[in-house]
Amino acid sequence: MCVRIVLAFVILTTVYDWYFPTIAVVFLAILNDGCMISISRDKVEPSANPNKWHSKSIFLCSLLYGTYLGVSTIVLYAIAAETTFFQDTFGLATLTPNEMTGLIYVHLSVGGLATIFITRSYSFSFLDRPGFLVICSFVGAQIVASVLGAYGLGNYHNFAGAGWGYVLVGWVWSIIWYIPMDLLKVAAYKIKDSYVWKHFVFHHKDYGV
């Protein structure tokens, strides 16, 4: 999430001169980070092999996912701010810079937290059902995020709502980018487990995922 936010907002600020309100980042952190606590009660299968932290692998995968999600945010903003695609295709209103916060907030919340379902499993995420508490936490957090995205905070600190039409856009956009990310995860793990990766990149024996 940190890589994605830093990459996306650096580009959006420097290239498009658009600023994401600090108060929105606070809400994002409270809801999503609070939801991530539920992972401790997730339904998982224990590894058959001894495990240890692979910091380099974790860092590279985080960089990969963060860059991918950051690009998705930048592309969404560019389409919404620089084109009339959503207006011409779906009949939605043109967003002001403050209302754009609602759209980007929903996308950041849904797309960012959905990463839990990808990273928690070694294979495709739809093959490994998460625990009930994780699902409930995700749904609860995204209901609140959707309401915030639709209505904002009454333009408080430039956080205005984008309306329910754009909330749906944020959800659909996140789902569209979720599917290739799942494939990207599986491919990354295949590369990580390859002979070349283990013996020539990190020069260590792998004792688990």
From TrEMBL:
The lineage of its organism: Eukaryota, Amoebozoa, Tubulinea, Elardia, Arcellinida. InterPro entries: ATPase_P-typ_TM_dom_sf. Coiled coil: none annotated. This is Cation-transporting P-type ATPase C-terminal domain-containing protein. It comes from Arcella intermedia. The chain crosses the membrane at residues 58-80, 100-119, 131-153, 159-179. Keywords: Membrane, Transmembrane, Transmembrane helix.
